[in-house]
Amino acid sequence: MTTRPQRTQFPHSDQLVVTDAGLETWLLYDRGIELPEFAAYPLVATADGRAALAEYYDHFMAIAAAADAAVELDTPTWRANPDWASALGHDSDELAAFLVQSVNVVAEARGRWTGDRPLIIGGAVGPRGDGYAHSQTDRAAAAAYHSFQIDRMADTPVDVITAMTMGSTEEAIGIVDAAARVELPVIVSFTVETDGRLPSGTSLVEAIETTDRATDGYPIHYMVNCAHPTHFDRLVRTGEPWLERLGGLRANASTRSHEELDEATELDRGDRHDLARRYAELGSLLPAMHVVGGCCGTDHHHVAAIVDAVSADRTFAS
Questions:
Q1: Overall fold of domain 17-313
Q2: So what's the pLDDT on residue 132?
Q3: Which band of pLDDT confidence, cut at 50, 70 and 90, is reported for residue 2?
Q4: pLDDT at res. 267
Q5: Which has the closest alpha carbon to 17: 123, 117, 125?
Q6: 263 φ, ψ to 5°?
Q7: Among 239, 249, 245, CA closest to 219
Q8: Helix or strand or coil: residue 71?
Q9: In 23, 45, 65, 111, which residue has its Cα 20 to 30 A from 262's Cα atom?
């Protein structure tokens, strides 16, 4: 019988959790580090790469400690799946080693954590293909495919699998299946287009309710990432029961569509103060929203403003 590492329990919705931001855009535009295939995980193989990642994570730990909040840091493994690894020339053994090293980088950050609240290690799992495209992978195929990444994370100190930028329910459900098989908690984060629908055309409410039905409510909660609040904020004003399953938000800095962002040649950092205000408004409408961070174009300055705004608008457990 395999003995799994002890996991830190994810905080309940009455506890503020600070998470990180747009890692890849920060590395590219703020540190000038090239990322072939937009993959950050190869950086863990070099001292300079690990130092850049440590600098990045330390920013969010400082924000969380100052806010007396918990912190959840995602491993740089959004692209660390077999297809993207193959495009980068990494075989399965190399990819497995990169996955372990990626978790170790965040575990080392936990060793530097000085806050009083928990630090959660999130094992980031991205879509098999492009994050803005509709995945054609069905449930069973997605579970089998993503098991490579998730099975290896199960033997590390990862506390929760974070399925990021999910554009279809079938792939999300497959990832949940793979995580449940190795008894890892999971958070599913969907992305939406400017019309509030997933790239597959599915509505956000349908995606959440379908995933919950198919998995007996296994995910801890759901999130939205890689979209601006203006793309979906109208959906949360209904007060419907499904909104209680939305536990967090990692928004883009830009109001642009995915297509426009793909074609952009410069980083759109948006207006972080306006973004923070929108987070606070959403937090007043979403009773379970307690995880806040950012996605493309955001950095620690955005997240600090968001944490200040959300904390001022809502009281969390002390």
A1: TIM Barrel (3.20.20)
A2: 61
A3: low
A4: 87
A5: 117
A6: -90, -10
A7: 245
A8: strand
A9: 45
